Amino acid sequence: MHITSRLFVAALLAVGLVGVLPAVTASAATTYKVTWIDSEDAVTTMTYACSGGIQTYYGENVLEVSANGCGDRIWMHQYTDGDGNSYCINPNAITYGFSNTYGDFEQVEPTGNQADCDATTEIDPIWSSDDDIQEYCIDGHTFRVYIGYGEYAFVLKIVNLCNVRIWIHDSAGDALACVSPGGYPPASTYVWNGVSQNATEYQISGNQAPCSAG
Question: 199 and 161, same structural domain?
């Protein structure tokens, strides 16, 4: 977690503005999986060592990267030589649902960088209480604003600039909406529909796939 985020979240906990953060468990995994897809939509899943370096598979495209327990970022590159478009996968995140119209990623590259790709990215939700509270993209973080008398503010708008999905929850913790990640695909936005007034919480997930991918 970014140091500033730690201090920021600690301060909010002290005044009751933020929900309880889930425990983070260190991963002892030494491998990750990549599912490749060819031009005829045939798929092959390969398991690679976290220390195995750059990987390609006969020029096929990446369909999914899962079980990234390496604890390091994994970069994807458009071409097997590392050129072209690139995309960064957070440590311990999963990502899938790539479109061949963006990148045709043919190379994966584990790194020694343990920071989230969006560790310094901030989002600035609009709350019904007019609170202006910027927040770093912290995977697993749940956030809400207490306004007193057992009531919480509503999330009116949030632009997802994080690398991961953001979930909008009601006061019972049930999901109301999924907001796709920024970066890939382009950032999407949640806007209050003017009817449901119980969107009192958002959660930053560890899933980098677009919401449409299921």
Answer: yes
Residue 165 is classified by DSSP as: -
Total-model pTM: 0.74
37 and 102 part of one domain: yes
Choice between 59 and 24, residue whose per-residue pLDDT is larger? 59
How far the first Cα of the chain sits from its last, in Å, is 27
Q: Report pLDDT for 127.
A: 93
- pLDDT one-digit tens code per residue, 164-187: 999 999 888 899 999 998 865 556
How far, in Å, CA of 174 to CA of 159, rounded? 20
Q: Which two tokens stand for residue 176?
A: 């109301």
DSSP 7-61: HHHHHHHHHT-BPPPPP-PPP---EEEEEEE-TT--EEEEEEETTS--B--TTPE
Distance between CA atoms of 190 and 193, rounded to whole angstroms?
9
Contacts of 124 (CB under 8 A, 6+ apart): 132, 133, 134, 135, 159
Q: Are residues 65 and 148 in the same domain?
A: no
d(Cα 16, Cα 134) in Å, to the nearest integer?
16
At residue 212, does pLDDT exceed 70? yes
In the 8-state DSSP scheme, what is residue 207? B
